[in-house]
Amino acid sequence: MSSSNSIQVFDSSLRIPRYVLNALQGNECRSNCALPLILKSQDLESRGQTPPHRQIWVVCSSVNSSGAPSVELMLCVTEGYIDSYPVFIYNHLPPDLLTRGYIQPRMAALANALAEALNGNLARVYAVYGQDPLAEAFAWNWTNITGIGNLVDKPYYAAKLSYCTRQTLRSRFLPLPDDLIPEIRLANDEDVREVAQCCHGFASDSAPYILTRDGALREARYLVHNQQVWVHRITRRGTTESSIASIVACSRNSQNNATITKVYTSPDWRRLGCAERLVRRVCEDLLQTKTTVSLFVAHDNPGATAVYSRVGFVGLGQGEEPLETWTEIGFHPQSVRLGHW
Description:
This protein is an alpha+beta fold. The protein is about 30% helix and about 25% strand. The strands form two sheets. A ten-stranded mixed β-sheet has the order 1-2-3-4-5-14-6-13-11-10, with helices on both faces.
């Protein structure tokens, strides 16, 4: 690593330098795992509140041509509303610098600084999520430093980062059968138990992040209370029989970007276009005040990829410009304490 590089560790979001925040705010789509959590922490800390566990941000910076500091990479060890998040990596480097020779010394320094900052609590690092070469470099270095094995050959999650704008959003009419009446809106308190069922169903397909029924209910209450989940409810014509077919959660948001973090359709209501209808409506609502709506879509989920492409998320159709690819790599479960996200 160059002598012009520096590593800084912050355990308060209020101490993160302005130049770091400016970098994150300059790319809110890519920083969706970092910036919203910093902003939330700053709000809490400024009111004298603290998260249930210590949070840490480790920043690798260089000096630009004008002599000012410039962020290159950042590790984020943060807390979610259910449990601890994995280590999120924010990257501010251009693609041509994402080479092993450039990344390796910087990631080694970041990982060493994090291990020291954790003060023996190495089990906190149960997984890492970031762009492919960065996640792999962190996993290798973390295993080398701590002796805790990684699961790089069996990643927890592998996905593309896509986004939708007002310009790319595509309108499409998706009728339901005549006997079904749709209702799409933000969830309210009366929806909590059905939203919890959807959260539980979503988590059951998201190993290792399985939720208990109580955990799913806690998540649903949080999402509803904070107006971060929309529902697609269906009523059978001529009856009072009604149920939630789909949900969309949007829980990592910043000034100009909203991130869809959960899309789930109940097995009883699949193949009716519910997810597409709901995602499109949510994007329409969010893009009234946001510039972009971002989401991660798994490589092994072609059905979701097709839905998001039809809605207007870029880079998911044939012949489109490739997107950033991200990987979540876990560490051996016997050596860590699993969190949730």
